[in-house]
Each structure stands twice: as structure tokens, then as C-alpha cells.
Design a protein that fits this description.
Elements lengths: L1 E5 L1 H4 L7 E3 L4 H9 L6 H4 L10 E5 L2 E2 L15 E6 L5
Parallel strand pairs: 1-5
Antiparallel strand pairs: 1-2, 3-4, 3-5
Length: 89
Amino acid sequence: MVTVEFAASLRRHVAVDTQSVPAGSLRAVLESALQAAPALAHYVFDDQRAVRKHVAVFVNQSMVHDRVRLDLALQPGDKVLVIQALTGG
């Protein structure tokens, strides 16, 4: 299984616990995790189902740069963290 966690900055919009979902492509893992909180998908994905520009996805502490294909193959034991990318000064 793959662990998917949504940062507090996203959970404040829609409450969702850490999810444990079957391994597969990053897209499949995210879609599966979002089934527990379908309303959160709007905060993670844009209308074309790409990761929004203000959201960052990390797999095993490495940021994923491809926001569109999300075809990175994940293995059992991998950890995904989805955060709201904030900027400012």
C-alpha cells in the first residue's frame, strides 16, 4: 500500500485522514486517496485534472515536477504528501 497524506493547509478546507491505497501510478494513487474526500479534488486538481499550480506533491520527500501526466509508478511503502504551496514574504 501507498500512504497519502494531505497537509493541514488542505485539510482545513475538507477533512480527510491519511489514506492507505493500492500502489500504481501517481495519478491512480491520488484519485484513490481522494475518494475519501471527493470535495478536496477541486483543491488538488484543475479542470484538466492536472495538479494545480499552488499545490505541491512529494513522493518520498522528492517533489514531483510533472503536474500533468502523473505517471510516476509508485511501489508499496511509498509515501505521498500533498501540500498547498504558499509564497510570500
